[in-house]
Each structure stands twice: as structure tokens, then as C-alpha cells.
Amino acid sequence: MRARLVAGNWKMHGSRTSNRALLDAVIRGMSEISGVECAVCVPFPYLAEAAVQLARSAVGCAAQNVSEHAQGAYTGEVSAAMLAEFDCRYVLVGHSERRQIFGETDARAAAKFVAAQAAGMAPILCVGETLEERDAGRTESTVARQLDAVLEKAGVAALAKSVLAYEPVWTIGTGRNATPEQAQAVHAFLRGRIAGRNNEIAARLRILYGGSVKPANAKALFSMSDIDGGLIGGASLVADDFLEIVRAAESRG
Ligand code: PEP
């Protein structure tokens, strides 16, 4: 059975003081939860402090973005090796905000995926369709294109050390939800596509759902057979809400 994972994405929120309190509460809460892995994607400047606070806790440290380049004249970028020095276990790759706001292409997401793995981190590859693409019946072709870019560059074996996150763009930070059935259908499609290349890797791959997951809808989403946890934005900034979502993943098992 696939181990559940719930990852919080703080996006560009927080301060040294508020982070400390939030992590304290999440660490404390996680000490009473079993059977679910938990990680938080922290903004770059806070990683060093978070890594110290999270050391020896049940909460993993993660980053929100990574450069595809190993080093060099890339002002403002942060390499995978730098993140690895701060105990980052995971890093988001291809988040829809990176794709939509910063123009990141499928090829660039694939290059970031490879760079993250080369430094020993597990990329969380985010895929998802816009509302326009869904309405045009292009949900599957969109997520397939995003996934295939990584499969072509990294090979299917690389997925064994990664996580996939299905995040419909129209549900992120909007308060709109995909129904559990809508989400399950896309998760099953993604798993099936990977199974076409390697059954075992597909069966073991954790596919998270993200997009306005809240305590009220988490349980129904996580009860679906191909949903292995969540990528949580807004609700990860409130310790009680985040922990309730983690508990909802625990109760599926
Ligand atoms: C996200 O940041 O990936 C996300 C899913 O955000 P939210 O939960 O706020 O929709």
C-alpha cells in the first residue's frame, strides 16, 4: 500500500515569528498522528531556520521551487544542491503558479525534476488543467503532455523517487473544488498512463490532490482509491486546519 503524504505549500507567506509558531504547532500535532508522512514547503529565506526546527521531528522540510541549473550566472536562482544542504526532502516542480505567472514550460519543469533528483531530493511534480482546458475537454491531454515531458526527459524509472500532484488550476486558491470523482478520474488516468510504461512504478507512485483542500472536504477526497494525500496551500497556514487534513489522510488507511 502507498504511504500517505500531506504536504503544505506556504507559498509567499510567513515571517520568522509566525513560522516558528506554526511549525511548533504542526510538530506537536504530528507527534500524535501515525501512518501519514507530512512535509512543509517553506519560502527560501526561512529554510535554514525551518530545517533546524524540523530536525528529528515527524515533519519534513521541503522547498517550493528549484533552478534547473547546477550553478553559475543565474541571478536570483537557487540550485538543488543548495536546497539539499538544508535537509530538503522534497521540492515542488511545475507548480501551476510557476507555469502561469512565471511562464515555466513543460521542458523547464522536466529539467528541474532532473536537477532535484540529481541532488537527492524527491520532486513533487505538479500537473493540472485550466478551466478553459477542462471546458474544452482537454483535461487528459493537458496533464498527459505535462507528465510526458518528464517521462521523456527523465525516464519512467525516475518516477520511483518522486511524487505526482494533480492540481486543477481552477481550484487553486479559489475555494472551488474538483469533486472526489473528478479528481479520482484524473488520478486514475495518470496512473494508467504511467502503468503503460511500468506497472510496478505506477502502482507505487503517490499521487497527491491539490486545490482548495480544507478540513471539510479532505476526507472525501482522500477516500478515493488513487488519491494518496494532498498538496495543501491556504489551509497549511493554519495549524489546526492542516493537522485536521493530515488526520483525514490517516483515517483512510
Ligand atoms: C497549492 O498551493 O498548491 C494549493 C493547492 O493551494 P490551495 O490549497 O490554497 O488551493
Structure, explained:
The structure is a single chain. With 253 residues, this protein is α/β, with parallel strands linked by helices. It has one domain: TIM Barrel (Alpha-Beta Barrel), CATH 3.20.20.70. Helix content is 44%, strand content 17%. The protein has eleven helices and eight strands. The protein is globular, with a radius of gyration of 17 Å. The relative contact order is 0.16. The mean pLDDT is 96. Phosphoenolpyruvate (PEP) binds next to strand 8. Phosphoenolpyruvate binds next to strand 8.
CATH superfamily: Aldolase class I
CATH topology: TIM Barrel
Instruction: Indicate how many domains the architecture comprises.
Output: 1
Distance between the termini: 9 Å
Taking all Cα atoms into account, the compactness measure Rg is 17 Å
| SSE sequence, one letter per element | EHEHEHEHHEHHEHHEHEH
Strand order of the largest sheet: 1-2-3-4-5-6-7-8
Strand content: 15-25%
Mean pLDDT: 96
Largest sheet geometry: 8 strands, parallel, barrel
CATH class: Alpha Beta
Give the total of beta strands: 8
General form: globular
List the uncertain runs.
none
List bound small molecules: phosphoenolpyruvate
Task: Tell me the helix content.
Answer: 40-55%
Query: Structural class, please?
Result: alpha/beta
The CATH architecture can be given as Alpha-Beta Barrel
Give me the number of helical elements: 11
